[in-house]
Write a structure and sequence with these properties.
With about 250 residues, the protein is mainly beta. Helix content is about 10%, strand content about 50%. Strand 12 and strand 13 form a beta hairpin.
Protein backbone atom coordinates (compact mmCIF):
# COMPACT_ATOMS: atom_id res chain seq x y z
CA UNK A 1 0.00 0.00 0.00
CA UNK A 2 2.76 2.45 0.96
CA UNK A 3 4.62 1.69 -2.26
CA UNK A 4 1.49 2.37 -4.34
CA UNK A 5 0.94 5.71 -2.59
CA UNK A 6 4.55 6.73 -3.23
CA UNK A 7 4.01 5.98 -6.93
CA UNK A 8 0.84 8.10 -6.86
CA UNK A 9 2.59 11.11 -5.34
CA UNK A 10 5.49 10.78 -7.75
CA UNK A 11 3.15 10.76 -10.73
CA UNK A 12 1.06 13.63 -9.41
CA UNK A 13 4.04 15.92 -8.91
CA UNK A 14 6.22 14.84 -11.82
CA UNK A 15 7.66 17.55 -14.03
CA UNK A 16 9.48 17.03 -17.30
CA UNK A 17 10.88 19.05 -20.17
CA UNK A 18 8.52 20.31 -22.86
CA UNK A 19 10.27 18.16 -25.43
CA UNK A 20 9.32 15.07 -23.46
CA UNK A 21 5.72 16.26 -23.27
CA UNK A 22 5.56 16.77 -27.00
CA UNK A 23 6.80 13.26 -27.72
CA UNK A 24 3.98 11.95 -25.51
CA UNK A 25 1.43 13.45 -27.89
CA UNK A 26 1.05 16.83 -26.21
CA UNK A 27 0.19 19.85 -28.38
CA UNK A 28 2.77 22.10 -29.98
CA UNK A 29 3.23 25.17 -27.76
CA UNK A 30 5.21 28.12 -29.10
CA UNK A 31 6.42 30.93 -26.84
CA UNK A 32 7.97 34.16 -28.14
CA UNK A 33 9.12 37.55 -26.87
CA UNK A 34 7.57 40.21 -29.09
CA UNK A 35 7.99 43.98 -28.50
CA UNK A 36 8.63 43.40 -24.80
CA UNK A 37 5.57 41.16 -24.33
CA UNK A 38 5.45 37.40 -24.11
CA UNK A 39 3.16 35.43 -26.43
CA UNK A 40 2.03 31.82 -26.29
CA UNK A 41 0.35 29.91 -29.11
CA UNK A 42 -1.08 26.45 -28.48
CA UNK A 43 -1.80 24.55 -31.68
CA UNK A 44 -5.01 22.85 -30.55
CA UNK A 45 -7.09 20.07 -32.00
CA UNK A 46 -10.51 21.02 -33.44
CA UNK A 47 -13.08 21.34 -30.68
CA UNK A 48 -10.53 21.59 -27.88
CA UNK A 49 -11.43 24.80 -26.07
CA UNK A 50 -10.19 23.86 -22.60
CA UNK A 51 -7.12 26.14 -22.49
CA UNK A 52 -6.63 29.16 -20.24
CA UNK A 53 -3.96 31.12 -18.37
CA UNK A 54 -4.22 31.00 -14.59
CA UNK A 55 -4.59 34.69 -13.75
CA UNK A 56 -3.43 34.71 -10.12
CA UNK A 57 -2.84 37.92 -8.15
CA UNK A 58 0.87 37.10 -8.09
CA UNK A 59 0.95 36.90 -11.89
CA UNK A 60 -1.15 40.03 -12.39
CA UNK A 61 1.31 42.02 -10.25
CA UNK A 62 4.01 41.24 -12.82
CA UNK A 63 2.18 40.68 -16.11
CA UNK A 64 -1.21 41.62 -17.53
CA UNK A 65 -3.14 39.30 -19.82
CA UNK A 66 -3.41 41.72 -22.72
CA UNK A 67 -4.98 39.21 -25.13
CA UNK A 68 -6.39 35.71 -24.79
CA UNK A 69 -8.38 34.22 -27.65
CA UNK A 70 -8.91 31.29 -29.96
CA UNK A 71 -7.76 31.78 -33.54
CA UNK A 72 -7.64 29.55 -36.61
CA UNK A 73 -4.26 28.32 -35.36
CA UNK A 74 -5.29 27.60 -31.78
CA UNK A 75 -5.27 29.30 -28.37
CA UNK A 76 -3.30 32.57 -28.33
CA UNK A 77 -2.34 34.70 -25.32
CA UNK A 78 -0.22 37.85 -25.02
CA UNK A 79 1.21 38.90 -21.65
CA UNK A 80 2.39 42.50 -21.20
CA UNK A 81 4.88 43.51 -18.46
CA UNK A 82 3.61 45.39 -15.39
CA UNK A 83 6.66 45.45 -13.10
CA UNK A 84 10.23 44.16 -13.13
CA UNK A 85 11.21 40.82 -11.61
CA UNK A 86 10.47 37.19 -12.36
CA UNK A 87 7.01 35.75 -13.01
CA UNK A 88 5.62 32.26 -13.53
CA UNK A 89 2.93 31.86 -16.16
CA UNK A 90 0.62 28.85 -15.72
CA UNK A 91 -0.97 27.55 -18.90
CA UNK A 92 -3.78 25.20 -17.86
CA UNK A 93 -5.80 22.63 -19.79
CA UNK A 94 -9.19 21.50 -18.48
CA UNK A 95 -11.25 18.57 -19.72
CA UNK A 96 -14.95 18.69 -20.58
CA UNK A 97 -15.81 18.55 -16.87
CA UNK A 98 -13.60 21.58 -16.09
CA UNK A 99 -11.09 19.40 -14.25
CA UNK A 100 -7.45 20.33 -14.83
CA UNK A 101 -5.53 17.48 -16.45
CA UNK A 102 -2.37 19.34 -17.59
CA UNK A 103 -0.39 22.36 -16.42
CA UNK A 104 2.52 24.03 -18.23
CA UNK A 105 4.57 26.72 -16.51
CA UNK A 106 6.84 29.35 -18.08
CA UNK A 107 9.25 31.37 -15.93
CA UNK A 108 9.94 34.85 -17.34
CA UNK A 109 12.48 37.54 -16.54
CA UNK A 110 11.09 41.09 -16.72
CA UNK A 111 13.57 43.97 -16.72
CA UNK A 112 13.32 47.67 -17.66
CA UNK A 113 9.62 47.33 -18.44
CA UNK A 114 9.95 44.44 -20.89
CA UNK A 115 10.06 40.65 -20.92
CA UNK A 116 13.71 39.86 -21.54
CA UNK A 117 14.04 36.11 -21.19
CA UNK A 118 12.19 32.84 -20.73
CA UNK A 119 14.29 31.14 -18.08
CA UNK A 120 12.59 27.79 -17.52
CA UNK A 121 9.35 25.90 -17.13
CA UNK A 122 7.76 22.56 -16.38
CA UNK A 123 4.97 20.20 -17.35
CA UNK A 124 2.65 18.39 -14.93
CA UNK A 125 -0.12 15.94 -15.82
CA UNK A 126 -2.70 14.07 -13.79
CA UNK A 127 -1.69 10.49 -12.97
CA UNK A 128 -3.42 7.66 -14.80
CA UNK A 129 -6.56 6.56 -12.96
CA UNK A 130 -5.49 2.92 -13.02
CA UNK A 131 -2.42 3.93 -10.99
CA UNK A 132 -4.49 5.87 -8.47
CA UNK A 133 -7.32 3.40 -8.02
CA UNK A 134 -5.55 0.92 -5.69
CA UNK A 135 -4.71 3.83 -3.37
CA UNK A 136 -8.19 5.27 -3.31
CA UNK A 137 -10.85 2.59 -3.70
CA UNK A 138 -11.95 0.77 -0.59
CA UNK A 139 -13.22 1.40 2.92
CA UNK A 140 -12.14 4.33 5.09
CA UNK A 141 -12.94 5.47 8.65
CA UNK A 142 -12.73 8.84 10.38
CA UNK A 143 -9.30 9.01 11.98
CA UNK A 144 -10.26 10.12 15.48
CA UNK A 145 -13.60 8.46 16.19
CA UNK A 146 -13.81 5.64 13.61
CA UNK A 147 -17.56 6.41 13.60
CA UNK A 148 -18.02 8.20 10.27
CA UNK A 149 -17.36 5.77 7.42
CA UNK A 150 -16.43 6.34 3.77
CA UNK A 151 -16.61 4.04 0.75
CA UNK A 152 -14.72 4.88 -2.45
CA UNK A 153 -15.35 2.93 -5.66
CA UNK A 154 -14.08 3.43 -9.23
CA UNK A 155 -16.60 4.74 -11.75
CA UNK A 156 -17.11 2.64 -14.85
CA UNK A 157 -16.55 5.84 -16.86
CA UNK A 158 -14.21 8.36 -15.18
CA UNK A 159 -13.32 9.14 -11.61
CA UNK A 160 -14.66 7.60 -8.41
CA UNK A 161 -17.91 7.40 -6.45
CA UNK A 162 -17.65 8.50 -2.82
CA UNK A 163 -20.21 7.86 -0.09
CA UNK A 164 -19.72 9.07 3.48
CA UNK A 165 -22.10 7.95 6.23
CA UNK A 166 -22.21 9.55 9.66
CA UNK A 167 -24.77 7.83 11.94
CA UNK A 168 -27.38 9.41 14.18
CA UNK A 169 -25.06 8.89 17.15
CA UNK A 170 -22.58 11.24 15.48
CA UNK A 171 -23.55 14.03 12.98
CA UNK A 172 -26.37 12.19 11.14
CA UNK A 173 -25.72 12.75 7.45
CA UNK A 174 -24.96 10.91 4.23
CA UNK A 175 -22.76 12.58 1.65
CA UNK A 176 -22.34 11.46 -1.99
CA UNK A 177 -20.13 12.82 -4.78
CA UNK A 178 -18.21 11.89 -7.90
CA UNK A 179 -14.54 12.87 -7.68
CA UNK A 180 -11.80 13.39 -10.28
CA UNK A 181 -8.10 14.16 -9.87
CA UNK A 182 -7.20 17.80 -10.66
CA UNK A 183 -3.47 18.34 -11.20
CA UNK A 184 -3.89 22.11 -10.88
CA UNK A 185 -4.96 21.68 -7.25
CA UNK A 186 -3.04 18.45 -6.59
CA UNK A 187 -6.25 16.97 -5.18
CA UNK A 188 -9.37 14.99 -6.03
CA UNK A 189 -12.18 17.48 -6.68
CA UNK A 190 -15.97 17.46 -6.90
CA UNK A 191 -18.62 20.02 -7.75
CA UNK A 192 -21.71 17.80 -7.54
CA UNK A 193 -21.74 16.72 -3.91
CA UNK A 194 -25.08 15.95 -2.27
CA UNK A 195 -25.79 15.72 1.44
CA UNK A 196 -28.79 13.89 2.86
CA UNK A 197 -30.23 13.60 6.34
CA UNK A 198 -29.56 10.30 8.07
CA UNK A 199 -30.91 7.75 8.61
CA UNK A 200 -32.23 7.11 5.09
CA UNK A 201 -32.25 4.17 2.73
CA UNK A 202 -29.03 4.66 0.77
CA UNK A 203 -30.47 2.87 -2.28
CA UNK A 204 -33.59 5.06 -2.38
CA UNK A 205 -32.56 8.54 -1.28
CA UNK A 206 -35.01 11.39 -1.33
CA UNK A 207 -34.14 14.99 -2.11
CA UNK A 208 -30.77 16.11 -0.76
CA UNK A 209 -30.61 18.67 2.03
CA UNK A 210 -27.78 20.32 0.15
CA UNK A 211 -26.91 19.81 -3.52
CA UNK A 212 -24.17 21.03 -5.83
CA UNK A 213 -21.60 21.12 -3.05
CA UNK A 214 -17.96 21.43 -4.03
CA UNK A 215 -14.75 20.46 -2.32
CA UNK A 216 -11.63 18.32 -2.42
CA UNK A 217 -10.03 15.13 -1.13
CA UNK A 218 -6.26 15.24 -0.63
CA UNK A 219 -3.66 12.75 0.61
CA UNK A 220 -1.71 14.16 3.58
CA UNK A 221 1.36 12.69 5.27
CA UNK A 222 1.45 12.99 9.05
CA UNK A 223 4.44 13.49 11.31
CA UNK A 224 4.50 9.73 11.94
CA UNK A 225 4.78 9.11 8.20
CA UNK A 226 1.27 7.71 7.92
CA UNK A 227 -0.86 8.85 4.98
CA UNK A 228 -4.46 9.91 5.45
CA UNK A 229 -7.14 11.19 3.09
CA UNK A 230 -8.50 14.59 4.13
CA UNK A 231 -11.95 15.66 2.95
CA UNK A 232 -12.57 19.40 2.77
CA UNK A 233 -16.15 20.32 1.89
CA UNK A 234 -16.11 23.94 0.74
CA UNK A 235 -19.73 24.85 0.11
CA UNK A 236 -23.02 25.04 2.06
CA UNK A 237 -21.88 22.72 4.87
CA UNK A 238 -18.21 23.50 5.50
CA UNK A 239 -16.50 20.49 7.00
CA UNK A 240 -13.04 18.91 7.22
CA UNK A 241 -12.69 15.23 8.09
CA UNK A 242 -9.52 13.11 8.09
CA UNK A 243 -9.96 9.47 7.07
CA UNK A 244 -7.60 6.51 7.44
CA UNK A 245 -7.60 3.44 5.23
CA UNK A 246 -9.08 0.28 6.67
CA UNK A 247 -6.59 -2.44 5.85
CA UNK A 248 -7.68 -6.05 5.47
CA UNK A 249 -7.99 -7.74 8.85
CA UNK A 250 -8.63 -4.49 10.79
Amino acid sequence: MKKILIILFTLALCASAFAAAETAGEPDIVGNIEDGSYTLLVHTKPGDDGWCVDGTEELEAMLSIAEAMYTDEGFFVRLAPVSDGTATVRLVHQDEDFVCDRVYTFDLLIKDGAVRESIGGSYTASPAEEEQDPCLSGEWAEKDSQITRMTVAKNADKGWNVEIVSPVTHEAYIFKADIRYDCGRDAFVYSDGEQFNAPVETDALGDPVYGGERGIFRFVQGEDGALSLVWINEFFVERTVTFVREEAGN
